[in-house]
Amino acid sequence: MKKKIGVKILGTGSYFPEKVLTNLDLEKIVDTSDEWISARTGIKERRVSEKNEPTSELAFRASVEAFKFANILPKQVDMIIVATITPDMFFPSTACFLQRKLNIPSVPAFDLSASCSGFIYGISVAKAFIESGLYKKILLVGADELTKITDWTDRNTCVLFGDGAGAMVLSASHENDDILSVFLGADGSYSNLLFLPAGGTFNPATVDTVNERLHTVKMYGKEVFRVAVPKMVFAAEKALEFSGKKLEDVKLFIPHQANMRIIMAVAKKIGISIDKVFVNIHKTGNVSSATTITALDEAIKSGRLKSGDIVELVAFGGGFTWGASVIRI
Ligand code: ACO
For 151, which of 11, 118, 161, 300 is 20 to 30 Å away at the CA? Predict the structure, then answer.
C-alpha cells in the first residue's frame, strides 16, 4: 500500500517593522489613554511600517528568517502562499511580489484572504497540497499592515492594530506528520460587523469615499467580541478532538492576539490554565493574519517550545472566519 505523505514543519520566521507606536503616542493623536487601552485590550505598543515598506517587504524578511531556520534555500520551495488582507496592491498578489523579492520564478504563488484566520486557513491549504503529492515544499506566510487601512481619527479602532509578518516552511515527509489537525469555519452573515467598505467592486474608490474615510477598517467591537469567544472555543475544541490529543497534551496554546479579554475568556472556557497560553499582544497589537505565526515563532526562538511539543493555534477574524490547528513542533 502507498505510504501516506505527512507534513513536516521545517522552520519559522517573523519580522516586525522597527517603528514603535506606544499608547502614550496614541494619546496625542486621539482622545484615549494608556489606562483605557491597556485595561480593555492588553495592548501597550504596536509596530508601524514605513510608507515605503509594503506588506511584501515584511513577508520577505520573515521568509528569509524562516529559510535560515529551516536550513534550505528559497529556490527549494515549489509553492508560495501569502495570507493577507492588506496586499501591496489589488493585483498582482502579494505572493507574486514576495516571489520577485525571493528571486524564485516559476513556482505557483497566490494570496489567501481569510482576515485574522488567514494563517490557519493557509496551514489547511498547504497541508492539502502536500498530502495530495502535488507539491513538496511550501512557503506559507501570514503578513498584514493594518495600520495602513486604519482611521487615525477613530479611537474605537486605531488603538487595536499593528503591522507584522510570520513565515513557515512546510515539507512533504514520510517520517513526520506535524500538522495533526485543522478545523476551519466561516459565517458570511456577519460580514457587516468588521469590514473595509470602499475600494472594491462594491464601492469603487472616488473622491467621496476617500473624504468619508471609507478606505479604513469599520468595526462593531462589542458584536465582534460576543461572537469571537464562542467560535474560537468551538474551533479549538474541534481541532483538539480531530487531532486525537487531550488538553493536557498541549504544551502551549497560541490564540489570535486581538484582545487580552478575548484571550482570557477563551482560555477559561476551554479550561486551559493561563500559564499555558502564549501572549505577546502587549508589544504587537493585532497583526491580523500574522498573529499566530509570529507568536509561534517567538515561542520557539525564546526556548518556550522544544522539538516534539504539541501546540494549538486558534484564530478568528472578519467574515467572520475562524479556525484552529494542532501541530507538533
Ligand atoms: N479610548 C478611550 N475610550 C474609548 C476608546 C479608546 N480608544 N474606544 C472606545 N472608547 C469609549 C467608547 O466611545 C465608549 O464611550 P461611551 O460609553 O461614552 O459611548 C466607551 O469607551 C465604551 O466603549 P465600548 O465599545 O463599549 O468598549 P468595549 O468595552 O466594548 O471595548 C473594544 C471596545 C476593545 C473594541 C472591545 O469591544 C473589543 O475588544 N472587541 C473585539 C474587537 C476586536 O478585537 N477586533 C479586532 C479585529 S477582529 C479580531 O481580530 C478578532
Answer: 118
